[in-house]
Amino acid sequence: MTEKTYEMKTDCFGFRRGECSVLYELVCASKTCSFYKTCEQYQADKRKYSYKGCGAD
């Protein structure tokens, strides 16, 4: 059985100053993170799903 290796996703939108700004721990270093998105994917989703409700600019 081969052991699966993981690498930190430094291109993730939530990766800031060497740590994850979305979760309490850096999950991508030890397993697959369900929050992983590149900055480009994040910006595209932000435009696509923008909410213009109470308190939004």
What's the SSE blueprint?
Elements: E1 15-16, E2 19-20, H1 39-48
Antiparallel strand pairs: 1-2
Structure commentary:
This protein is 18% helix and 7% strand. The protein contains 1 helix and 2 strands; from the N terminus they run E-E-H. Strand 1 and strand 2 form a beta hairpin. It is elongated and about 50 Å long.
Strand content: 5-15%
Low-confidence stretches: none
Q: Count every helix, treating DSSP H or I runs of 4 or more residues as helices.
A: 1
Helix-strand string = EEH
Radius of gyration: 15 Å
Characterize the quaternary organization of these chains: single chain
Report the helical percentage.
10-25%
Largest beta-sheet characterization: 2 strands, antiparallel
**DSSP strand count:** 2
Query: Helix- and strand-based class?
Result: alpha+beta
Strands of the widest sheet, in order across it, are: 1-2
Which features does this protein show?
57 residues, alpha+beta, two-stranded antiparallel ribbon, 1 helix, 2 strands, elongated
What's a concise summary of this model?
With about 55 residues, this protein is of the alpha+beta class.
